[in-house]
Amino acid sequence: MRFLIKNFIIKVFYSRISYVGRHHIPPKGEAVIFVSNHPNQFVDGGNIIAAVHSRKIRFITAAKSMRRPVIGPLAKSFGAVPVERSQDLAYEGNGTITTSTDSDGKTIVKVAGGSFDGLVKGTKL
User: Fold this and answer.
1) Tens digit of pLDDT for each residue in 1-43?
2) In the predicted model, is pLDDT for residue 59 greater than 80?
3) d(C-alpha 13, C-alpha 36), whole Å
4) pLDDT of residue 123
5) Which residues contact 50 (CB under 8 A, 6 or more apart)?
6) For a surface tag, which of 8, 42, 73, 104 has the fewest beta carbons within 10 Å of its beta carbon?
7) HSE, side-chain direction, 13 A CA sphere, residue 118
8) Inter-residue contact 79 to 58 (CB < 8 Å)
């Protein structure tokens, strides 16, 4: 699968892209962190693979994406490292969170009732 992507899809879809400064990337040796400025995981990944085909590349991928039927196995085949993002773990709960300030100026957070999870799971104030 990886061979197919590197040698066919990359050549077809990324053949007209030029890369500036690619000669500064060491072909092997120390670790290099590549950061893309495009907000699309497929375009970014394809660009990096096409630009740096001589190095073994591992991507940091949202764990949520790794759990998807097609994307997950493909990302795993590339050695992607899953990372849980806070926005993927958040969901609506029932209950009330209030804040107040005590006489020393410290903020007091009160969680009343409901079914909140995460950091307040199992905590009673």
Assistant:
1) 556 666 666 667 666 777 788 888 887 888 888 777 666 666 7
2) yes
3) 17
4) 45
5) 10, 14, 17, 19
6) 104
7) 11
8) yes
